[in-house]
Amino acid sequence: MELFYRSTRNNEERVTASQAILQGLAADGGLFVPEEIPNLAVSMDALKKMSYQETAYEVMRLFFTDFTREELAHCINSAYDDKFDDDTIAPLRAAGGAYYLELFHGATIAFKDMALSILPYLMITAARKNHVTNDIVILTATSGDTGKAALAGFAEVEGTKIIVFYPKDGVSPIQQKQMVTQKGDNTLVVGIHGNFDEAQTGVKEMFSDKALAEEMWAKGYQFSSANSINIGRLVPQIAYYVYAYAKMLAGGELETGEPINVAVPTGNFGNILAAYYAKAMGVPIGKLICASNENKVLFDFFRSGSYDRNREFILTSSPSMDILISSNLERLIYQIAGRDAGVNRAFMETLSTMGSYTITDEMREQLKDFYGNYASEAETAATIKGLYEQTGYVIDPHTAVASCVYEKYKKDTDDRTKTVIVSTASPYKFTRTVMTAIDPSYDTKGDFELVDELNRLSGVKVPKAIEEIRTAPIRHKKVCEVSEMPKVVKEFLGL
Q1: How many whole angstroms separate alpha carbon 489 and alpha carbon 409?
Q2: How many CA atoms within 13 Å lie on the side-chain side of 427?
Q3: Which domains does the chain have, with CATH numbers?
Q4: What is the pTM of this model?
Q5: How far apart are CA 77 and CA 137, in angstroms?
Q6: Which residues pair with 161 in a beta bridge?
Q7: Whole-Å CA distances, 312 to 295, 315, 318
Q8: Closest CA to 8 of 333, 433, 480
Q9: Maximum Cα–Cα distance for the chain, whole Å?
Q10: Cα dist. 186→52, 164, 255 in Å?
Q11: 333: exposed, middle or buried (Cβ count in 10 Å: 0-12, 13-18, 19+)
Q12: Are the C-beta atoms of 417 and 369 separated by less than 8 Å?
């Protein structure tokens, strides 16, 4: 049976999976959501014997129903190959009384690789399926990781161009070096004088600019998105929650049907929303532990029912979570509003005009599976240091936020359910933060000296992604104001 998608802001807009992937964002500014969340079609006893690729197929075939078996298998096998430095793709490591799901073994050593390795294949297949002759222009804002992962996925892909905007002073030195050294004639990386939310708003405005769309169409271009607002990003993320549970079952860590909790470092809300969808599909997930850094807009939302972005934007050591507008939360709001697009649209309009909204008590009742908390900068550093000293295991600051919040959850609830902590980036991506948390004296060393020190300390091989940028030339030097973003896009496309 074919599964269709609707906009969170207009119940009348109904598209196929391939059309939703191609468009990225609905015409009315809403996000595409499946008309229903399908149940897993195979048992956990079957899944526990499957590879990551086989598991991903069993998840994605239920959502991407207008892709043939051969098309989907091609996309999956092309994505999850030797670009990953671990054959299991997403290994689980037991440390400190929890299980760390390592999602950073791909080409850019961050969890975004799990979805952005497959998105180009899904998009090109979708374009052929819908007889698209225009070049696809991927327009993306990044808080650090999406940008490089998208660039790596789309670089030199025929029929595409990719433009990435990032906050010039809001990413780690390694993240910035990864982006500005990107090869590929079809790539453009631009730093903005502003924060991620401003970059993301600028991108969304260009998506909804009808005059710009017409100008592009006349030149043979059309926009699509590689941000987590694209359903082609979100669905592949569901797969690793299914896989993690099945592998714990296979390893004897769980009895069949025994629940797990998941703790997820959360900024744009896509990663934890994928866990919510996995739970709805039948994965025995108990609590969804939503971990924020000092930009704790989501913690405040789960505590009060009010989402309020009217606050100071804080630059932290976990920059991929430095977000005050969590775009994917809209999909959850739509769901708990009874899938009423009008109700959701009103909330989003209030957010746009007033900077805040408050959900009803009935909607809050449906959030009982979520627990929200946050970690301060000092707590994040202490968590990195404490876990290393206790176990020898080194984690990055985003993972440390989740680990810290998990400890707070246990203290608050006394719940000892086995818990998977989602590890979203390699510590090598944030060497200065990691090493100075372990010992402040490391702060005198250069970034790549710290890479070698981390290698010595952890015994973990320096990833290829880091070795490649040690001496790579800077290729992208453009910086602009937020207001100049459309102009930069037009210049790149020759409009």
Answers
A1: 44
A2: 30
A3: 92-109+232-468 (3.40.50.1100)
A4: 0.92
A5: 24
A6: 137
A7: 8, 10, 16
A8: 333
A9: 61
A10: 31, 11, 49
A11: buried
A12: no
Using the CB atoms, write b or e for 55-80: b if 16+ within 10 Å: bbbbbbbbbbbbbeeebbbebbeebb
Site of tokens 């390694």: 174
Q: Which two tokens stand for residue 214?
A: 């017409």
Residue with structure tokens 């030797």? 82
Q: Which residues are catalytic?
A: 112
Contact 136, 119 (CB under 8 A): no
For tokens 């070096």, name the residue.
177
> Which DSSP letter does residue 64 get?
-
For residue 27, which amino acid is it? A
pLDDT in tens, the chain (495 residues): 899 999 999 988 899 999 999 998 898 889 999 999 999 999 999 999 999 999 999 999 999 999 999 999 999 999 999 999 999 999 999 999 999 999 999 999 999 999 999 999 999 999 999 999 999 999 999 987 888 999 999 999 889 999 999 999 888 888 999 999 999 999 999 999 999 899 989 998 998 899 999 999 999 999 988 878 899 999 999 999 999 999 999 999 999 999 999 999 999 999 999 999 999 999 999 999 999 999 999 999 999 999 999 999 999 999 889 999 999 999 999 999 999 999 999 999 999 999 999 999 999 999 999 999 999 999 999 999 999 999 999 999 999 999 999 999 999 999 999 999 999 999 999 999 999 999 999 999 998 999 999 999 999 999 999 999 988 999 999 999 999 999 999 999 999
